Amino acid sequence: MSSIYLDANATTPVVPEVVEAMRPFFADSFGNPSSAHRHGQHSRAAVEHARSAVAKLLHASPKEIVFTSGGTEADNHALTGALQQFLDKRQPAHLLTSQIEHHAVLYTAEALQRRGIQLTALAPNSDGVIDPAAFEAALTPQTEIVSIMLANNETGAIQPLGKLARIAKNYNPAILVHTDAVQAAGKITIDLSGEFKNVDLLSISGHKMYAPQGTGVIFIRNGVHLAPLFHGGPHERQRRAGTENVPGIVALGRAAELAESWLTDEFRISYLTSLRDRLEQGLLAAIPNTTVNAAAAPRVPNTTNLGFDGIDAESLVIALDMQGIAAGFGAACMSGATEPSHVLLAMGLTPAQARSSLRLSLSRLTTAEEIDRALEIIPAAVDRLRSIS
Ligand code: PLP
């Protein structure tokens, strides 16, 4: 049975161009980029080429790009690195974030709160979007950093980041603006010299943009100082100690080049959007008592999140897997029990509605045939589960 992969927000497939780019760096080109000899310098050149590619994708300068082990590290570095000096000096500091952030941000924020940082986590509206007026009202003279994601991993809702960053800087130019752009990179244009020129810190992750897991980037705007997360060598211009993951960095650089060319191809973007819409509309038409979560929000082109009344999404994911469809549901496994998605609860869904919600996230490789097949399989699976519940 061929498999239909509709869980690209969990991880994207690594595309052949990326595999080809990194392959030599596992065997022939093994040098440490810090070594002065030719092996090292070959790796160094590859790392710097990747840095330039990522900078170009983000409309940033290569010096502002720091490679990390992924989105989680980048998020931890942004928040902890910005607030460390206040913890050290025992000075009050406030962190403003939202309830729809990934746990890489939320749990870091809560850990900082336990160490004395004041924390506000804003609720979104019912479409999963942060209201700029509520954001402005939550800023305080102690606010040192704000962290609002660019696109949500569960609903795909795009946040009004440019506006929020402007509000924060108008309130106090010293406030640092961080965004977790893990689910936005490669899906929508990120312009750190234009629309997002007020953003100081930004996280991305390789495995959401067709590079392997364990690769990521934190963008640190020129002039912004973050305390390092790791102590060790002077790598990444003293900002991230540890010998570089050369194959991973090369892969991320190649993925950034591919993302850039994909984002300039209107046809491919509208094709992906049309496949997502066809899937969403088809499921709404075929399955009674179905709702689209965050339907009225601006969304990234590949994501839909659907609630099927009376269904347990976890059982549906298992049933679909047996039929060759990989899907996701936004839940976290806490002490052995599955908790309903904190994102959907924050949007005002009941726990039962949140538990009945399925995330389908397409990749650039998804085909119309796969969507048609999914439109046959998913309604039948929902029907079957409803009939036995
Ligand atoms: N932020 C968001 C929005 C994510 O979706 C993810 C991964 O799911 C992360 C951060 C964590 O990134 P990584 O898996 O690279 O640590």
Fold and architecture overview:
The chain is α/β, with parallel strands linked by helices and 389 residues long. It has 13 helices and 14 strands. The strands form four sheets. A seven-stranded mixed beta sheet has the order 2-8-7-6-5-3-4, with helices on both faces. Strands 9-10-14 form a three-stranded antiparallel beta sheet. Strands 1-11 form a two-stranded parallel ribbon. Strand 3 (94-98), helix 4 and strand 4 (118-122) form a beta-alpha-beta unit. Helix 3 (71-88) runs parallel beside helix 4 and helix 10 crosses helix 13 (368-388). The site of pyridoxal-5'-phosphate has 14 residues, from helix 3.
Which terms summarize this structure?
alpha/beta, seven-stranded mixed beta sheet, three-stranded antiparallel beta sheet, 14 strands
Topology of this structure?
Blueprint: E1 4-5, H1 16-22, H2 38-58, E2 65-68, H3 71-88, E3 94-98, H4 103-114, E4 118-122, H5 132-138, E5 143-147, H6 161-171, E6 176-180, E7 201-205, E8 216-220, H7 235-238, H8 246-263, H9 266-286, E9 290-292, E10 303-308, H10 313-322, E11 325-326, E12 332-334, E13 337-339, H11 342-346, H12 351-355, E14 357-361, H13 368-388
Helix pairs in contact: 1-8, 2-8, 3-4, 9-13, 10-13
The structure holds pyridoxal-5'-phosphate.
Pyridoxal-5'-phosphate is lined by residues 70-72, 75, 102, 104, 149, 153, 180, 182-183, 205, 207, 216.
Series of secondary-structure elements, N-terminal to C-terminal: EHHEHEHEHEHEEEHHHEEHEEEHHEH
**Mean pLDDT value:** 96
Radius of gyration: 21 Å
User: What are the low-pLDDT stretches, counting only 5+ consecutive residues below 50?
Assistant: none
Q: What is the share of helical residues?
A: 40-55%
- Tell me the β content: 5-15%
